Each structure stands twice: as structure tokens, then as C-alpha cells.
């Protein structure tokens, strides 16, 4: 295996997240608020979006040169990208890729799960923020019912995909939905992960008061369904893992705000329009699309990536712990880089 690339803080490059579209069929209030992402909002034009061939070429270079083994496809909503299972099949052919996952809102999985599995997708992370139908319809801004997402979960399981479930917890929005969610999924094969609401982008009106901390979530869960810590799978895993004492099933809490994990952050994100983003809170990305489209060779592209990773010193969340007044900084929107 090729030696990994290392950044200025000694962090290896291990994980590639590929956003395949900035469009979404939902308008979650904490991600793409409908009043901002309205009918006048300018999404990326088609010619600015990386083709499947370009994505596959970049991924191949990163597998070969940086030793990346895991790929995650995300969005916007990745299932909005036409024929995305073709991309999965192309990524699956790259020698050295061990695992391909997708993060999705789940609503289109009944249509696509089987083809995705056949193309080589291993796992999906499905996002669902409440089991209360009325509330969920409001949160997603498109009047999509809970059952549509649960049908997506079932379709994924029936297709043989591993399933994790993300729930973003925002105070005043859905902290009272944590326990119903745990109760519903705790005795199933679906691994639940609760995520602290983050100040990604500049559109979601984030305030520190909105954050329900990992500690608080832990107590809410543990008081009713006792849990105990479980060791991390690997260095750089973002979710702190726990198991239920009664059945040893796993759940996780992602504490990006109150307990930052920058020191182990080994992720790079590729936006739909071909920018490498070295931190979820970056103001801008590094334009690899123009490098690729200018006719660069594979070693030249590899050089571009290793140079930008070598310069990386991002540790936004750790810095935020000391200074929460960072709201005026321009940041890339979550729907551009996919979490
Ligand atoms: N559309 C897909 C979905 O919702 O799963 C993939 C893209 S979405 C941006 C990826 C994940 O980021 C979702 O689980 C979503 O809930 C989460 N997310 C979006 N905005 C967030 C925020 N401000 N804080 C924490 N998580 C957020
Ligand atoms: Fe769309 Fe996912 Fe953002 Fe919701 S969280 S608006 S589903 S991209
Ligand atoms: Fe990684 Fe940036 Fe998040 Fe820190 S703030 S964990 S560097 S993405």
C-alpha cells in the first residue's frame, strides 16, 4: 500500500467524500432553508459539474497515490443525480477500494436500492430527524412523510445494504424525538447516530443555544435505555460509539461542536463542481476541475492533491471551542459538500 499523504498537523489523508450534486428534493430547515434555497436559487449548471469519468479518475488517483480505501457518495441528495448507480459501478471497479457508502435522505431508495447494491454499494447512511410525521414534514420542507423514509430503510435492507441512521438534533426542533427514535430502532440492525447541530455554511441561522450537546444526548438516552461505551473502530472515527447494555446493539453520538475531533480528521471532500475541500467549515475549495480539464496528467493531479493536503492546517471546530463568535466568516454550504 502506498504511504499516506500527511498534512501540517501530521494527519493522514484516509477518507474521500464525493458530492455528486448540489440539488436536493428536501429543504431541511437546518441545511437548505426553503426561504434561501427557493425557486430563484441558482444551482450549479451542468457543465460545471464533474462527470462520472472525472470523478472516477480523481478517485482512482487518490486510491493509488494516497492509499484511500473508503469512498462515500453524498450530495445534496445523491439519488437526484441521474443514473448515480453507474458511478457506483465505476468506483467499484477501482482496484483497492474496500468500501463504498452513500449518505441519503432515503426517500428515493425504494426506486434505487437494488441497482445500487448490484453496482457495488455496500452501505447507506439514511437521515431521519423525527418519527413524528407532522413534525418531519415541516423539517424537510417538502411535506415528505416519515413512512417514505422508512420505506427507503426497508428497501435498503431488502437489497442487502448495511444501514445507519443519522439524526441531527437541534434544540427546539427535535430533542424530544431522541427517545422515540431509540425505542424504534434499538432492537433492529439499524445503527443510530445522533449529530450535534453544526454551524456549517451561512444559511442555517446556527446559534450555540441550538446545540444539544453530546453529554445531554447521552443522559437523555442513558436514563431510559442504559448504554455503555464501545471502543472506536479506527483512528479518526467521528462517532463516539456506545452499546445498549441489554442487547449490545450499537448507537453513536457525533459531537462536532462540544467535543471536536480535528486532531484525528483525515477527510477530504470533493464538491460536485470539482473543488477539494479540506475542512467542513472552509470558505472555499481547491479547484481540481480546471486542473483536470486543462489536460493534466495523473501524476500532475496527484501532485496537486498532495500539495494541498501538505499545506492543510484546518482545525475549525477546536478553534470554535475557544471562540464561538465566528459567524461572519464565509463558509461553504453543507449542501455543496455533503457532510
Ligand atoms: N441529502 C443527504 C442526506 O440528507 O443524508 C446527504 C447530504 S446531507 C448534507 C448529509 C448529512 O448532513 C445529513 O445526515 C444531514 O442531516 C447532515 N447535516 C446537514 N446540515 C447539518 C448541520 N447544520 N449540522 C449537522 N448535520 C447536518
Ligand atoms: Fe437535502 Fe440532505 Fe440537506 Fe436535507 S440534509 S436539505 S436531505 S442535502
Ligand atoms: Fe475536520 Fe474541519 Fe471538522 Fe475539524 S472542523 S473535524 S478539521 S472537518
TrEMBL record:
<protein>
    <recommendedName>
        <fullName>GTP 3',8-cyclase</fullName>
        <ecNumber>4.1.99.22</ecNumber>
    </recommendedName>
</protein>
<dbReference type="InterPro" id="IPR006638">
    <property type="entry name" value="Elp3/MiaA/NifB-like_rSAM"/>
</dbReference>
<feature type="binding site">
    <location>
        <position position="127"/>
    </location>
    <ligand>
        <name>S-adenosyl-L-methionine</name>
    </ligand>
</feature>
<dbReference type="InterPro" id="IPR058240">
    <property type="entry name" value="rSAM_sf"/>
</dbReference>
<feature type="binding site">
    <location>
        <position position="103"/>
    </location>
    <ligand>
        <name>GTP</name>
    </ligand>
</feature>
<feature type="binding site">
    <location>
        <position position="265"/>
    </location>
    <ligand>
        <name>[4Fe-4S] cluster 2</name>
    </ligand>
</feature>
<feature type="binding site">
    <location>
        <begin position="267"/>
        <end position="269"/>
    </location>
    <ligand>
        <name>GTP</name>
    </ligand>
</feature>
<dbReference type="GO" id="GO:0061798">
    <property type="term" value="F:GTP 3',8'-cyclase activity"/>
</dbReference>
<dbReference type="InterPro" id="IPR040064">
    <property type="entry name" value="MoaA-like"/>
</dbReference>
<dbReference type="InterPro" id="IPR013785">
    <property type="entry name" value="Aldolase_TIM"/>
</dbReference>
<comment type="pathway">
    <text>Cofactor biosynthesis; molybdopterin biosynthesis.</text>
</comment>
<feature type="binding site">
    <location>
        <position position="262"/>
    </location>
    <ligand>
        <name>[4Fe-4S] cluster 2</name>
    </ligand>
</feature>
<dbReference type="GO" id="GO:0051539">
    <property type="term" value="F:4 iron, 4 sulfur cluster binding"/>
</dbReference>
<dbReference type="Pfam" id="PF06463">
    <property type="entry name" value="Mob_synth_C"/>
</dbReference>
<feature type="binding site">
    <location>
        <position position="279"/>
    </location>
    <ligand>
        <name>[4Fe-4S] cluster 2</name>
    </ligand>
</feature>
<dbReference type="GO" id="GO:1904047">
    <property type="term" value="F:S-adenosyl-L-methionine binding"/>
</dbReference>
<feature type="domain" description="Radical SAM core">
    <location>
        <begin position="8"/>
        <end position="231"/>
    </location>
</feature>
<feature type="binding site">
    <location>
        <position position="72"/>
    </location>
    <ligand>
        <name>GTP</name>
    </ligand>
</feature>
<keyword id="KW-0501">Molybdenum cofactor biosynthesis</keyword>
<dbReference type="Pfam" id="PF04055">
    <property type="entry name" value="Radical_SAM"/>
</dbReference>
<feature type="binding site">
    <location>
        <position position="164"/>
    </location>
    <ligand>
        <name>GTP</name>
    </ligand>
</feature>
<feature type="binding site">
    <location>
        <position position="31"/>
    </location>
    <ligand>
        <name>[4Fe-4S] cluster 1</name>
    </ligand>
</feature>
<dbReference type="InterPro" id="IPR013483">
    <property type="entry name" value="MoaA"/>
</dbReference>
<dbReference type="InterPro" id="IPR010505">
    <property type="entry name" value="MoaA_twitch"/>
</dbReference>
<dbReference type="GO" id="GO:0005525">
    <property type="term" value="F:GTP binding"/>
</dbReference>
<dbReference type="InterPro" id="IPR000385">
    <property type="entry name" value="MoaA_NifB_PqqE_Fe-S-bd_CS"/>
</dbReference>
<keyword id="KW-0411">Iron-sulfur</keyword>
<keyword id="KW-0949">S-adenosyl-L-methionine</keyword>
<comment type="subunit">
    <text>Monomer and homodimer.</text>
</comment>
<keyword id="KW-0547">Nucleotide-binding</keyword>
<keyword id="KW-0479">Metal-binding</keyword>
<comment type="similarity">
    <text>Belongs to the radical SAM superfamily. MoaA family.</text>
</comment>
<feature type="binding site">
    <location>
        <position position="198"/>
    </location>
    <ligand>
        <name>S-adenosyl-L-methionine</name>
    </ligand>
</feature>
<feature type="binding site">
    <location>
        <position position="17"/>
    </location>
    <ligand>
        <name>GTP</name>
    </ligand>
</feature>
<comment type="function">
    <text>Catalyzes the cyclization of GTP to (8S)-3',8-cyclo-7,8-dihydroguanosine 5'-triphosphate.</text>
</comment>
<feature type="binding site">
    <location>
        <position position="30"/>
    </location>
    <ligand>
        <name>S-adenosyl-L-methionine</name>
    </ligand>
</feature>
<keyword id="KW-0342">GTP-binding</keyword>
<dbReference type="InterPro" id="IPR007197">
    <property type="entry name" value="rSAM"/>
</dbReference>
<dbReference type="GO" id="GO:0046872">
    <property type="term" value="F:metal ion binding"/>
</dbReference>
<keyword id="KW-0456">Lyase</keyword>
<keyword id="KW-0004">4Fe-4S</keyword>
<feature type="binding site">
    <location>
        <position position="76"/>
    </location>
    <ligand>
        <name>S-adenosyl-L-methionine</name>
    </ligand>
</feature>
